[in-house]
Amino acid sequence: MRRQSAGLILVAAVVVLAGCGGILGDANRDVPDGYGEVGGVEYDDDINITVEDGLTEAELGRLVNRTMARIEAVRELNYKQPVDVEIIDREQYQQQRNEQVSPGGGAWENQIWRGLFLVGQDRDATAVVEDAFGTSVTGYYRAGTNDIVIVSESETPTVGMDTLVHELTHALQDQQYGLEFGQSTRDQQAAYDTLIEGEAGLVSHLYLTEWCQQWDCVRPEQAVGAEQPDASELPEEISLVIGQPYRVGPTYVQQLKQEGGWEAVNERLENPPRTTAAIIDDDGAAEPTEITIPDRSAPGWERFDHEPTGDTLGAASIYAMLAANGVAENEDPRRYDHPAVEGWTGDRIVPYRSNTEYGYVWELAWEDAEAAEEFASAFEQVLERNGGLARGTSSYIIEAGSFEGAYRVTVDGNRVEIVGGPDREALENIHG
After folding, report:
1. What does the alpha-carbon distance between residue 96 and residue 360 come to, in Å, rounded to a whole number?
2. What is the spatial distance between Cα 264 and Cα 383, in angstroms, rounded to a whole number?
3. Among residues 169, 217, 193, which one has the least CA distance to residue 68?
4. For 39, what's the count of Cα atoms within 13 Å in the CB-facing half-sphere?
5. Does residue 308 have a cis peptide bond before it, meaning omega lies within 30 degrees of 0?
6. What does the domain layout of the chain look like in residue ranges?
7. SS (H, E, C) 360-376
8. Cα–Cα distance for residue pair 322/330, rounded to 1 Å
9. CB under 8 Å to 380, separation ≥6 — which residues?
10. How far apart are alpha carbons 371 and 294 in whole angstroms?
């Protein structure tokens, strides 16, 4: 899903869920020439700070500069400008976030999440996602500003080093390559997020586990002030989506680095991936198939006044739907591949409304008819697991529960069309 606050690069407790197990360390940890000094502080300086009683402003400044110097050494890139770090508590962060979230758009968002069978009509999807961010975010970078905010769980100003390194890496990305927002589709934004969050996750991992073997490091457990948000409290169906860039990203970027060093990562930052399918599978579609859904609605039903008209959800979101509903399962949380996801080449979903009733049309393109049938079968299992009862050859009814309504699933060659609405009559009125 798209970022919830434009211009903010968030790091949440879902990073803990992602893990970097299996990532190989740097064989050579020598600091390259030209890197490792920021603001008069070098990477190996003793900055003389104590974390037990919280950080003074001067201590925070020294810690930030040395951390930036060390990130330069790890990443082999130079910072161009200073970065300001502010520490706030959880209550302040939640208040700020409430002020940033603009009203409206909730009904559109609800249809997207319900179409994916992740958040049903018994909950407001926007509120669920906002709550997840409000309780789990540990810091964020304001793109284009060189400003970082760290959310402290302690009464004294403290900093989690994993969060600090992660966000300072985003600042480095922004200064060197510029961070892009407002990608044309959710899938394209998710692919881009996987790259930038993956790099930040990998740099943090290498910094804290490999390079800190030779440096005197402020360890996360010392700097955090005893506690972090509990990532396990995030609803799994939400974590599967908002946590995808953190789960998949570090391994993705590590593979780039293994194949061509940091130069390969730099090249990808200049030419970011456009689909999550290309990240999940080397053979996945690099560019999505363009899909146009004609408006065949009857009087009384209309598309949302939304630009663009529809959205592309992508392979990662489709996997999240299957996994959340028990149809797909990978023991490794970093893997989003599944036979029912392979062969995706594009999709388009368009929500509809009629007064207080809602529905949608979702068309998906696949490499061939076999891949289309594979997905359609998996989606029908999602319907069945939510109480769906077959009515004829292509219609299903869910009589009760958070996804109550009618659904039509049709396969035509390499295309799958799904229509959802409150009842079977509505299906014809939405897309007859």
Report:
1. 33
2. 42
3. 169
4. 18
5. yes
6. 8-274, 283-431
7. EEEEEEECCHHHHHHHH
8. 11
9. 388, 396, 409
10. 24
H helices of 206-243, in order, are 220-223, 236-242
The distance in angstroms from the start CA to the end CA of the chain is: 29
Rounded Cα distance between 111 and 208, Å, is 41
Tens digits of per-residue pLDDT, 21-45? 556 566 557 888 999 999 999 999 9
**What does the alpha-carbon distance between residue 127 and residue 377 come to, in Å, rounded to a whole number?**
31
- pLDDT, tens only, 63-83: 999 999 999 999 999 999 999
Distances (CA, A) of 354 to 296, 303, 358, 360, 422: 14, 9, 6, 11, 10
Residue 89: in which H helix or E strand, if any? Answer: strand 84-89
Categorise residue 104: left if φ over 0, alpha if ψ from -120 to 50, beta otherwise. Answer: left
**Tens digit of pLDDT for each residue in 164-211?**
999 999 999 999 999 987 789 999 999 999 999 999 999 999 999 999
- The residue-averaged pLDDT of 319-346 equals 95
Round to whole Å and give the CA distance between 36 and 44: 8
Q: Is 305 exposed, middle or buried (0-12, 13-18, 19+ CB in 10 A)?
A: exposed
- Run of H or E residues at 278: helix 276-280
Q: Residue holding tokens 């049903």?
A: 120
Q: Is the pTM of this model over 0.90?
A: yes
Dist. CA 83–CA 340, nearest whole Å: 44
Neighbour order of strands in the sheet with 8-12: 8-12, 137-142, 147-152, 84-89
